[in-house]
Amino acid sequence: MAKAQKVSAAEWVPHTRDLNVLRSAAPSCRGCELYARATQVVFGEGPRSANVVMVGEQPGDEEDRRGHPFVGPAGRLLSKAMEEAGVDREKVYVTNAVKHFKWIERGKRRIHAKPSGIEVSACRPWLEAELASIEPELVVCLGATAAQSLMGREFRITTDRGRFFPHPWAKEVMATIHPSAILRVPERYEEEYALLVRDLKLVAERMH
Fold this sequence. Notes:
Blueprint: H1 19-25, E1 52-56, H2 61-66, H3 73-85, E2 92-96, E3 103-106, E4 109-112, H4 117-134, E5 138-142, H5 144-151, H6 157-160, E6 165-167, E7 170-176, H7 179-183, H8 189-207
Parallel strand pairs: 1-2, 1-5, 5-7
Antiparallel strand pairs: 3-4, 6-7
């Protein structure tokens, strides 16, 4: 039986710590099939000097169209929670575990589809390169996909959110819920939003 070919973006990732070079190279990536249906790659954004990097799952519909991370409804909710928690978004680098939007068609709408473990693994060299360039004190994983990308598939947000763990790519990693998950449960919005702010207040304390 033929051995399954490993899917990886590694050959498209330049050997550099220059974020601008990495960002310029990202649109040519063919490390997995997601590029074929996405409008464009959505690379991370924020200061090279950031002490905190926030990692989400993947771009959403609005991010895919505009080419910037966390500018859609979930991004706006994240900005609101960060402000309430005392975290200055201008000083934080934001990115995603997967750089292309994975979606399914429903009528005229493009609906988010969860990236597979293979797709997350394929894109990991880009995330590793971003973190090597920034050398952050803290990485905040937003949601299970981002957390498992950095912490392994056994990591559970439900039991380990808000806790700090050492990591080879940063001094510490912690995880919390992804803002999009809050938007999907309007009946629990207030409760879940309060928990997100609580977790981000821990980030603010670490930053200071």
